[in-house]
Specification:
The protein is α+β, with helices and mostly antiparallel strands and 116 residues long. It has 3 helices and 4 strands; from the N terminus they run ββββααα.
């Protein structure tokens, strides 16, 4: 058996607020560090998911028999009804959330990993 390539996969969670700081969400990103076809180290950053934490400082609560996913959907639907697109707000707030210094640190670590 021979290892032909190595990839570094990192998961990162951040808490952010949107809609005038009234909605707190946890945002999950995945960072993939890899060697591209030209032999250069590249990093792809992708927001994977987000989860409601609180609204106006109050935790998101489930109703009897309701899953946290259902509570999340109920909350998002209520905002949609008001013309507030939470998905778009979270997407916009997540742009640039992963610091360049962290990406550089991961690429440096990856460089050391592939040299072994």
């Amino acid at each position: 058996m021979k290892i032909t390539s190595k990839t570094l996969l990192v998961s990162l969670d951040n808490s952010i607020t949107v809609h005038n700081d009234s909605v707190c969400v946890n945002v999950s990103h995945q960072l993939v560090v890899f060697l591209d076809n030209e032999g250069e180290i590249n990093t792809e950053v992708e927001m994977m998911d987000w989860e409601l934490v609180s609204y106006m400082g109050e935790p998101i609560k489930t109703k009897a028999g309701e899953s946290i996913y259902d509570a999340h959907q109920r909350f998002v639907t209520a905002f949609d009804t008001l013309g507030i697109e939470l998905n778009e707000l979270v997407d916009d707030a997540s742009v640039g959330l992963v610091p360049t210094a962290l990406i550089q640190e991961l690429e440096d670590g990856y460089r050391k990993m592939i040299q072994k």
